[in-house]
Amino acid sequence: MSSTHDFGFTIDTLGWEAWAPVLELEKATPDEIQVLEESHPQAKTSPYYLLLVQEAEVLRQRSKLFNTIMYGPRGASRADRELAATAESRVNGCPYCASVHAQRFVQMKGDRDLMLRLLAEGVETEMPARQRAIVDYSVKLGATPSAATRSDIERLRGHGLTDAEILDITLSVAMFANANRLMQTLGEATRP
Amino acid sequence: MRDVIDELMGIEPGSRLDELRALRPEVRRSTQASEVAIFEGESGLTKTERHAVAQYVAELNAEEALAAHHARAAGETPRLPVLLAHATMLTEEPDQATPAAIQALMAAGLAPRDVVMLSQLIAHVNYEARLLAGLRLLEEA
Fold this sequence. Notes:
The complex is a heterodimer. Chain A is mainly alpha-helical. Chain A has helices at 30-39, 47-52, 56-71, 78-92, 95-107, 112-121, 129-143, 150-158, 163-185; strands spanning 15-18, 187-190. Chain A is globular. By secondary structure, chain B is an all-alpha fold. Chain B is built from eight helices and no strands. The longest helix of chain B has 29 residues, at 112-140. At the A-B interface, helix 3, helix 8 and helix 9 of A face helix 3, helix 6, helix 7 and helix 8 of B.
């Protein structure tokens, strides 16, 4: 049986193609244009956002949620949030999500070699104990929420993460449970 | 402001979890506004269908309180089984997605924007299930 994993995982920039009709930009209402502009700098040329904007208010609120969870100030480092997001995307099988967030992880001074191995070999690849604890928690909570346990939280605290940081990691995993499902079931990754 | 997550978990104002969540006020605002947009907005999906799908996705994630929250307003329609089949795939095996799955929804009478609404709804409940589970762990640990 085919799987969205079969495409393979890369840190290179990928394209994305929709499986359902998208909004034609010239037919967009002023409100739809505004939601696109609030959502992502390239949303007006992105089939993904042009598909989602057909439910404009739902997209508006989801974009606010996404942006505060991934880019909000303080709390967990941006690199740690991106690590959680990419690990979950790798397990769920969303090559597009994984490539975008692997790139962001590296931009945020995350270890590029670690990320390349995570993409190529999977989330079990070797990594320092602190990152291991973040990835293990993210993978469990992402796959089956009830699989994560108190000992996962205690392990994160043991590596110096505050509860505010652990909540941010949790939010990143929750957001990517959402993002992976939209991205990998409404269309597919393409090679440019 | 409080959101559906606070209500379902019984997070008391001034409690440790309340103060932790207060660090990300926009999460509360947009989680609640997403609830309103998804379950009360105009859509080709009936409100009872939307709540039935949400109840089902909450059950798949073993989130009883979230399931009960939607069960009150859930109801059946002839095409509900098609919507639930899509919810199973998205929730449990999203890597099995195919264009044929979208075509099956359109064949059941869903317009493209209804497909978007259904997908957003299922994705949103999967988000909530992980946030609830993580907050419970932070409360207990």
